[in-house]
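Protein record
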Amino acid sequence: MKTRLPILLSLLIMTSVCSCSKQAAPLIGISCGRSATGAVNLSSAYTDAIARAGGIPVVLPIIDDESLAGSLLAKLDGIVFSGGPDLDPAEYGEEVWNETVSVDAVRDRSDLLFARAALASGKPVLAICRGEQLMNVVLGGTLYQDIPTQVDTIIKHSGFDHRIGVEKGSVLYDLFGQDSLTVNSSHHQAVKDPAPGIRITAYAPDGVVEAYEYENVLAVQFHPERMVQKDDSWLALFRHFIDRTRK
């Protein structure tokens, strides 16, 4: 199921919710993708997970204006960067590696503006899959553009579950009390060179980064919004994020 909201409707929802003098729950923006026709789209798994964790989900519009990104972030309590297509390698100083790399320049521009505004605001960020890659690049890191041809691995990162190792003292460890978790996997790109200051907190057995933390950012390579649909225990991750937005 896809959520499709025109830009105007997204802004009207945001304005009406923020106008309340007593906000019942934190207002959480969620970045969206675009269909082939340019329609805004987002899996309802994201909005469902935020709502179940106690937040008010708002699908953010695709934008091309720095001041608008700052204005929208000012009305939010936190932001989720969702999954999607590959980030343009030019953003981290590389040329396209091979034919598997697929980018959306319009979405890249929008996500980059929101990411920079989020970092400047200091408000909590939950970065998922492409979102994890996006934040690493914005902070100064690079990406593997195609894991199957750049990483020596037998793990299938696209469409298969696998185990990850979790660092003690990390958010994931504190939430689940385990140094190993099973996660889903739906990507062919990943963090290569971590940005300065990032603390990597989870790895796949082949060394691929599965989670990191940085100041106001919690980033995961897997898709917890889908895992929640099968296992309620993963709501703990979203509740942790919502709790951070209340502080």
